[in-house]
Amino acid sequence: MSRFDEAIEDMKRKRKQTLEEIATFVEAEAKQRAPVDTGDLRRRITHVTQHSDDISRAKVGTNLEYAPSVEEGSKPHSIIRNDGKPLKLKIDGKWVTVDEVNHPGTKPQPFIRPAIEENIGEIQERIRRGIGVSD
Is the pTM of the predicted complex or chain greater than 0.85? Predict the structure, then answer.
């Protein structure tokens, strides 16, 4: 292997290592910002990295169905069970059965976007250090 090929392989290794470090950092930041009710949302935030010869990508998030509604909020909507069974709700300490609930919607509680946007400087610095780039 030529010195040029070795340098290219070293750069790829640094790129992968740096991206993994950044993705782990953003994941931790998102977990800190995630609102907590049961803790499931916070626990299920994770990351994956993908690499090819030319590009590396990271995704930070969760596969929880309700996560986008937490991040972006939701408009008022009706809730009806898909299986045709009535909904059971606890209201004023008593269980009631209903066919439909009119949900008022929710305000956004962003946790992923701020984990990135509020840390752009730190992310850029980690790239500079990891790849060995100077200004």
Answer: no
Q: Which long-range contacts (CB under 8 A, 24 or more apart) does 47-52 make?
A: 47/23, 48/23, 49/16, 49/19, 49/20, 49/23, 51/12, 51/15, 51/16, 51/19
CA gap 80, 32 in Å, rounded: 32
Q: How many C-alpha atoms does 26 have within 13 Å on its Cβ side?
A: 28
Two tokens at 56? Answer: 């590396």
For 69, counting Cβ atoms within 10 Å of its Cβ (0-12 exposed, 13-18 middle, 19+ buried), the class is: middle
Beta pairing, strands 56-61 & 101-103: unpaired
Secondary structure letter of residue 82 according to DSSP: T
Radius of gyration of the chain from Cα atoms?
22
Q: Using the Cα atoms of residue 12, residue 14, residue 20 and residue 25 in order, give the sign of their dihedral.
A: negative
Residue 49 CB coordination number (10 Å): 15
Q: What is the mean pLDDT of each run of 10 residues along the chain (135 residues)?
A: 90 95 98 96 98 94 96 94 84 90 95 98 95 70
